[in-house]
């Protein structure tokens, strides 16, 4: 299982729903593309296990045309547990969850 660790800003999607995301750094996105290219899933999403602070969750990252990277959604429960707000720089540990 490939593991990546990075710091990135948590941001709020300006549209409906109040979704919060972290955009993966370009170098990590490139490594993930390299590792996953032979077995790409629908919409090119990738299942991951993410961790920040003491909180770990399973989710998917999704490609983002605007940034050329992947977006990591950060659930409301995670934000509550870790006291995270939009604009905050967050330390993330990300593990590809490939079968």
UniProtKB/TrEMBL annotation:
Gene3D superfamilies per the UniProt record, alphabetical: AF2212/PG0164-like
Domain of life where this protein originates: Bacteria
InterPro entries per the UniProt record, alphabetical: AF2212/PG0164-like_sf (IPR037079), DUF1905 (IPR015018)
Keywords noted in UniProt: Plasmid
Protein name in UniProt: DUF1905 domain-containing protein
Originating species: Sinorhizobium fredii (strain NBRC 101917 / NGR234)
């Amino acid at each position: 299982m490939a593991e990546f660790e990075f710091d990135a800003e948590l941001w709020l999607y300006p549209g409906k729903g109040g979704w919060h995301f972290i955009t993966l750094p370009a170098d990590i996105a490139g490594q993930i593309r390299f590792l996953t290219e032979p077995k790409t899933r629908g919409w090119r999403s990738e299942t991951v296990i993410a961790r920040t602070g003491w909180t770990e969750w399973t989710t998917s990252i999704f490609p983002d045309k605007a940034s050329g990277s992947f977006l990591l959604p950060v659930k409301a429960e995670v934000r509550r547990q870790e006291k995270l707000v939009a604009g905050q720089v967050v330390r993330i540990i990300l593990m590809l969850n490939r079968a």
